[in-house]
Amino acid sequence: MRRVEHIMGLPITLHTPHGESGEVVFELLREADRRFSPFRPDSEVCRGEHSPELKEILALCAEYERDTGGAFRARLPGRPLDPCGVVKGWAVQRAADALRATGVRDFCLNAGGDVVAAGEPEPGRPWSIGIRHPDLAHEVCAVFEVRDRAVATSGTYERGHHIIDGRTGRPVHDLVSLTVIADDLTVADGTSTAAFAMGRDGIEWAAARPGCEVFAVDTERRVYRSTGTITV
Amino acid sequence: MRKVLVVVMLTIAGLIPLLEYHPSSQMGALPASPAPADGSGGGTPATGTDSTGAAPPSPSDTSGTSGTSGTSGTSGGSGGSSGTKNVDGSTVETDFGPYQVRATFTNGKITDVQLITEPSDGHSQRIASYAAPTLRQEALQAQSAHIDSVSGATETSDAFAQSLQAAINAKGN
User: Using the beta-carbon criterion (under 8 Å), do A154 and B153 form an inter-chain contact?
Assistant: First the structure.
C-alpha cells in the first residue's frame, strides 16, 4: 500500500508492502510541523519555548555546527532560528521508529526525498533507492540497495541555493548533490545538510563520520563515492 | 483519480519515456556508441535561468517544460515505446559557463546521456571531457535498475507531481 500526504511542506510517501495504514507516521509528522516549524508563529521554535524535544534538536544543531567548523548553522545572521536542516530528519526518523514500534517491520518512508527503508519490500530483496540525477529530474544517477538504512540527499537543483555556508554566509558553489546513507535518518539528513554546507570538503568529512556512506556530484559533474556502498 | 491526473500531467509534459521506467526485466545491452541526435531540436535553448549566474541554479524552474524544449528524434512523438527520442535537460549555469545534457531514449530506456552545451574555454573543456563521462557512466548504470524510491529533494507539490517518485507511486509496482 502507498499513501501520500503533504506535511511540513513535504510530499510524504509511505509504502507498506503488507498493507498497514501507518497512521502513526502521519500523526507524528503533523505534530512535528505544529511544534517545530519556523514558519508557524505559534510553534515552539518561534515562541522560544524549549521543550525536551526542541532541546534535543538544538543540541544536534550545535553538534553539527561545531563539527563542521561553523559551515552548518541553525542561526544565520539576520535570519530567524531555522533548525530545518535537523528537524526534518529527526521528525521523520521519530515517525519511522513509532511505526516500527507498532510491529511494522517492512516499509519505505520517503519525506521530500529523504528516505527511511526498513526491512525489505519482499522476502530476500533489499529496497532499491535511486538518487535523483542532478540535471535530469526524472532520472536517477545511482541506485543503492539497502535494508534498515536511511538515505538523505542535499542538492541545489531545487529551490535554488537553499544551503548557506555559515563560515562565509554565502551559498554553496562547488557541489550539486550530496547523499549520505546511515542507520537512521537523523544522522543521514543532518550529515548530508552539514556536509553540503562545507562544499567539496564536506565529502570526506561525511565519509569519515561513523556509519556514514557518501555519494556526491560536484558542479563539474564529477562523481565521488565512499567505499563500502552496495550499488546496482 | 489522483493517479490519472498524475499520468495526464506527465504525458502533457512530454515525459512519455518515464512511463516506460520498467523494472529491468529486459536488461538489453546498452549501445557502446551514443545514438546521434539527428533531429532539428538540437539547438541550444536560450539560457533559461535568471538566477545570479554563479554556479548551479535550480533546474526545477524549467523542469516542467524542459522535456519538450529540445525534443527530437525518430519516434515522431507517437508516444509509443519504440524508436529513439532525445530529451534535453535544463541549461545549468556554472562558474565555468553553461552546461546542458541530452538524454537519448531507445525503446523507452535511456541509452545515452551526453553534454550538448558546455563552456567554450580550454580549461572548462578539459573539465567537461574529464567530468562528463563520470556522471554519464553512473547514470547509464543506474537507469537499468529497478527503483522503489527516490532520494533527492522534491520539496514542492508541483515538483513532486512531476517527479519520478510520483510516477513510481502512480505505477504502484
Answer: yes
Domain boundaries, chain B: 2-21+45-171
| CA triple B116-A222-A159, angle to 5 deg | 75
On the question of pLDDT at A142 being above 50, the answer is yes
User: The domain that contains A20 carries what CATH number?
Assistant: 3.10.520.10
| Helix-strand-coil split of chain B, %, nearest 5 | 35, 20, 45
Instruction: Residue A113: give the domain boundaries.
Output: 2-225
Domain count across chain A: 1
What are A29-50's pLDDT values in tens digits?
999 999 988 778 888 878 888 8
> A59: buried, middle or exposed (CB in 10 Å: 19+, 13-18, 0-12)?
exposed
Q: Does B143 touch chain A (CB under 8 A)?
A: yes
Q: What is the ipTM of this complex?
A: 0.87
pLDDT digits (tens, 9 = 90+) for A220-232: 888 998 865 444 3
Smallest CA–CA distance from B154 into chain A, residue: A112
A148 or B102: which carries more pLDDT confidence?
A148
Domain-embedded: residue A232: no
